[in-house]
Amino acid sequence: MHIERSVPDSPSTIRRVRLWTEFVVLYIIVPAAVAVLLQPVRAQTLLGRFGIHLNLDTGLPRGLFVFPVLVGSFVFLAVVLRRDPTFENRELWDWGAFKRDLKRILLVFALCAPTILGAAWMMEHVFHMLPKGGFLRLPRELPILMLMISILYPWLSAYPQEVTHRVFFFHRYEPIIGNGVFAFVLNVLVFSWLHVPMWNWVALVMTIPAGVLFAWTYLRTRSALASGFEHAIYGIWTFATGLGWFVFTGNANVS
């Protein structure tokens, strides 16, 4: 895999400050804010340990703070990319690059899927971190819901995340983070942090290897379709095995 590309001329100090500020807001503060709005009581308890006492409960439905934010961010950042004259629009799709990498994506998935399945079994039967019966619960007990996830997840979650956290990230911030190992590691970390609204360490940990895989695919192909497809098949499989319980916002209270 060749990650290295020529780095644009060094930006001015003002632009560097602006880009870093934007980066922190988009990739660190926004997920943290969603986590607070999704579980205000937990956030208040956490802040209380540091002597900060605030009422963070807005009284609004928690569903307002997840997919609307994700989809809204996706639409806004996609428009920003399309209006950027230095951006190659084909990276938002690139069917050719997707087809060339499809065999590798499916092969790696075939090798990883049994491990994910085994991890889900252990989470219920060994570590008792999944609810009883959580292993393979959706395909066994809720096949219609599993079907709906399989249809909607790729377009409402996986692909938007690849645009916001892969395409926009690597293009927009290349002037300040480069295009090498530091950029790659930072991308994996912010992808993990994206899942902080789930309020459990399992979500943060298991999205690290996922972030490595998806970032690697995107940088190989420069195709959001390729990384989005890969993200989708792993996400659907994760929900099918039962591990999706850790990344479902309705369960954002896992200790």
Can you give a write-up of this model?
- By secondary structure, the chain is an all-alpha fold.
- The protein has one domain (13-251).
- It is built from 10 helices and no strands.
- It has helices spanning 13-38, 40-48, 67-82, 95-125, 137-141, 143-172, 174-177, 181-193, 201-221, 224-241.
- The longest helix has 31 residues, at 95-125.
Short structural description:
It is built from 10 helices and no strands. It has 255 residues and is mainly alpha-helical.
The portion of residues assigned to helices is 55-70%
Structural class: mainly alpha
Per DSSP, the total helix count is 10
User: Which outline best applies?
Assistant: globular
- According to DSSP, the number of beta strands is 0
- Tell me about the biggest sheet? none
Secondary-structure element pattern, one letter each: HHHHHHHHHH
Kindly, what is the distance between the CA atoms of the first and last residues, rounded to a whole number of angstroms?
38 Å
Give the overall average pLDDT: 91
Report Rg.
Answer: 19 Å
Low-confidence stretches: none
Number of separate domains? 1
Keywords:
255 residues; mainly alpha; 10 helices; globular
Present the secondary structure layout.
Blueprint: H1 13-38, H2 40-48, H3 67-82, H4 95-125, H5 137-141, H6 143-172, H7 174-177, H8 181-193, H9 201-221, H10 224-241
Helix pairs in contact: 1-2, 3-6, 4-10, 6-8, 6-10, 8-9, 9-10
